[in-house]
Amino acid sequence: MGGLLCCISFWRNQRQDHNYRQSPPDDKLVMHRWTLNDLLFVHVKSRRLILQNRDMGYLQAIIAKFSTCKCPGCKCQGGIFTGIKRDNFGWINSICTRSGCKHRLSDHIQHLREASFKEFTVLMKLIFDIYNTDITLYNLSKKPKSERNILLKGIFESVFDVLDASVLLDPFTLPNIDTIYGSPPFEKTNIEQVLLNFCMHIFNDNGTLKFEDALKVTKFVLKYFDTWMWNIPQELLKCDPREYSKSYDYYYCRFLLHCCLPRCVHSISLRYRPTKIFGQDVLKYTLKAFRIQLQVWCCKKSIMWNELTTSFCLDYFPKYMDLLEKEVFNDESPIWDMDYEHGDLKRETIFLEY
Predict the structure, then answer these.
(1) What mean pLDDT is predicted for residues 293-312?
(2) Which of 76, 95, 174, 217 has its CA 20 to 30 A from that of 104?
(3) How far apart are CA 308 and CA 296, in angstroms?
(4) At CA 257, angle to CA 254 and CA 258, rounded to 5?
């Protein structure tokens, strides 16, 4: 990328970059420090950096394909420069072969002259993600038309449209994916608050579990839920749709977009915590399947744990989940409406420090 920086001035003096097209999100809703240990994120990033570190001429030609021609009156929405050999000046003097354009490649990339390095990185993310999303859509089109694949195709089509519009209209700003399904959160009282309410309601004067132990189980459950992959719609356990305000598909699509896709579509820079943006409906939809999978995981891992941890996960956890399940499927339970401040809990123990 050094060659590109030598040829085009990416630095703008006394300039302040703006990264978000939408208003800044609530910092409490998003995951932090998750990218370093996420293998999928690291793999995708390494592939993007390979592209980003290509030679000057190659990058110019790639960017020009996604850039409108800046000549007055030209309506070209992206240059085509195939079949033209690179000269001593790179691709700068190549001519666009689109009908009605016929302008130089340099006329498509004038906006790079005043771009900062940060803006250039945003642009490369967009271009890389557009290529990847297009390939994903092609692969999905070859798969059987299951409910999951239909939902995935709809999500990736929407993401592709947003990315494509962003790179044409405002290439140095992260795209606003909130235009697809709206802005998180999607339920009023989130899962984290519901579980805190549950602890305050059940364990303040209950001999089954100490309140401090119940909070430790809650922290463990929340961490696992935030990284747990929900069941696909066709594997959802039977439930009465009249008991829910929205369908499972409604929440599943928003879960994939805001909690999963940021791992592989890096233009979607924020990854939200499911326990912060979903609430009663999602907890009722997922609790039974979540409990089964977490309990299986605990049993498998218990052979590597010490006696205290094993007792905690194989004794306290089932008792906790039995009581939680009873409350979650009781619409009259006060856990849906109680709203304790975190300060109330800190009198007992420090919580949510992660």
Answers:
(1) 80
(2) 174
(3) 18
(4) 80
**273 versus 85: which is more confidently predicted?**
273
Is residue 254 situated within a structural domain? yes
What token pair was written down for 319?
């008792």
Per the domain annotation, does 132 fall within a domain?
yes
Entry pTM:
0.84
User: What is the per-residue pLDDT across 74-91, written as a single tens digit (0 to 9) for each?
Assistant: 999 888 876 555 555 455
138 with 282, same domain: the answer is: no
Q: What residue numbers bound the domain in which 263 lies?
A: 191-346
DSSP code per residue over 61-96: HHHHHTS---STT---SS---TTPPPBTTBTTT-B-
- Token pair recorded at residue 61: 């030609």
pLDDT band at 321 (very low <50, low <70, confident <90, very high): very high
Among 200, 174, 339, which residue's Cα sits nearest to residue 269? 174
Distance, CA of 344 to CA of 178 (rounded, Å): 34
**Together in a domain, 25 and 59:** yes
**Contact of 198 with 335, CB cutoff 8 Å:** yes
> Does residue 354 register a pLDDT over 50?
no
The answer on 83 and 146 residing in a single domain is: yes
Integer CA distances (angstroms), 202 to 192, 209, 317, 328, in order: 15, 9, 14, 12
Q: Are residues 41 and 157 in the same domain?
A: yes
Is the separation of the CB atoms in 53 and 1 below 8 Å? yes
Length of the chain: 354
Same domain, yes or no: 204 and 332: yes
- Taking only the tens place, the pLDDT of each residue in 242-256 is 889 999 999 999 999
